[in-house]
Design a protein that fits this description.
Length: 417
């Protein structure tokens, strides 16, 4: 029996053992809101006594778990200016969803990771944070999705924010079983192939690479159960020399392509040119109709979005006035403008920051909390303006069709018969 097979003989649903290249790796799979997982990781660290313990966290997530008061230091206006509004909203929704899932178990999300860290500290064992920063993961997931994929992702996030679903302790524990996990991963891959690629497949590779680089001959890694199979395969491939431990290609947000950079300018300029052409070729009435369509659809739907978010009347007005202009600007969206205005008019209080995570678990909480309402204003005014842009474009095309013969005649006149 080989060393690797000897390790495999000790495997279970939640633990995988690899002995490769003269080193031993123990992978412990957890459910993030499971009391049993907390107890299992503590026992595993004590029993295995590894040289280092690898944790599926990055430094920022570790800091936020260890210091719940960190939210107090947040500047929502700075978050919006840095174009991190969607990222913050996504983190809050996912955190709130996990919190609801854990209500039946009495365990906060990520407590099994803290349990492993604390046990390692008590035994003077090195702790290594081996996960990719959440900001990079979320931005890669957003960047890799098509427009339709982004819409589906946004819809699921909003639905998750307002869902009342809770899970019983036995349902949480079932998630650690291989067949249950494979079925869930299959559903995610079918509905969100790009999301699974970034959140699961890429992170499997990233985690394996950084677990491999942990110091010592024996490493114990604490991971979500969904990563066990993938991380095990990548570590085996790295040990066999068929895969490089370098994962720098997935450690950054992919840069925008030249085509997308050009499109950022071409599309707004094209819209302006088409409306201008409407005045020149179709006449004053057609040109005015096209301009009105652009202003009306953008203004109306951005304003409605802000209204749905419970924005201040001045914020709604700013959203309506600003949307037709910001829709033509590659650098700033109406969501950022509306969110900043809302934050300035209805300034979040210390209490809003203290209760933000709890308030994010309910619809009422989102509207009651001033800080969360800023994020609602940001997302709904942006969504309204985006829909308005497409409807305005369709309306403009319809108007152009009504005098298309004049457009053809004008083009022929430019280039001769």
């Amino acid at each position: 029996m080989t060393a690797q097979n000897n390790g495999a003989a000790r495997d279970s649903n939640t633990q995988k053992h690899l002995v490769v290249a003269g080193r031993e790796f123990v992978l412990v799979g957890t459910a993030h809101v499971s009391k049993e997982s907390m107890e299992e990781v503590e026992l595993a660290v004590e029993k295995e006594n590894p040289d280092s313990v690898a944790i599926e966290l990055d430094q920022k997530r570790l800091a936020s778990i260890e210091d719940p008061e960190a939210w107090r230091k947040m500047d929502i206006i700075k978050v919006l200016k840095n174009k991190q509004g969607f990222l913050m909203l996504s983190n809050l929704i996912l955190s709130a969803y996990q919190k609801r899932m854990g209500q039946g178990t009495g365990v906060k999300p990520g407590q099994e990771m803290i349990a492993a860290i604390n046990k390692a500290k008590s035994l003077n064992i090195s702790q290594q944070m081996v996960d990719r920063p959440i900001a990079i993961t979320m931005r890669r997931a957003w960047a890799k999705n098509s427009f339709w994929g982004k819409c589906k992702l946004l819809g699921v996030l909003i639905a998750s924010a307002f869902a009342k679903e809770e899970a019983a302790p036995d349902e949480i524990e079932n998630l650690k079983k291989t067949n249950e996990m494979d079925a869930m991963m299959g559903e995610v891959a079918e509905y969100f192939p790009k999301v699974k690629e970034v959140l699961i497949d890429e992170r499997d590779r990233y985690l394996a690479s950084h677990i491999w680089q942990c110091p010592g001959n024996k490493v114990l890694a604490v991971l979500g159960a969904g990563h066990l199979k993938g991380v095990q395969k990548h570590i085996s491939d790295i040990a066999a020399g068929t895969e490089s431990p370098d994962c720098s290609d997935i450690s950054e947000v992919p840069p925008k392509s030249l085509a997308s950079k050009i499109a950022m300018w071409i599309i707004p300029l094209l819209i302006i040119a088409v409306i201008a052409a409407g005045f020149v070729i179709g006449g004053r009435k057609k040109g005015f109709d096209m301009l009105s369509a652009w202003v009306w659809w953008n203004a109306a739907l951005a304003g409605i979005g802000a209204l749905i978010a419970g924005a201040h009347p001045i914020t709604i007005l700013v959203s309506a006035i600003g949307a037709p202009l910001t829709s033509l600007c590659p650098f700033i969206g109406i969501g950022i403008v509306a969110g900043i205005v809302q934050a300035l008019i209805c300034k979040p209080k210390v209490q809003d920051m203290e209760t933000m995570q709890q308030d994010a678990t309910s619809i009422k909480g989102f509207y009651k909390n001033r800080l969360l309402r800023v994020l609602l204003v940001f997302i709904f005014s942006s969504l309204g303006s985006s829909i308005g842009t497409f409807l305005a474009g369709a309306n403009i095309v319809k108007i152009i069709a009504s005098f298309f013969d004049k457009v053809v005649a004008f083009v022929k006149g430019l280039f001769g018969k």
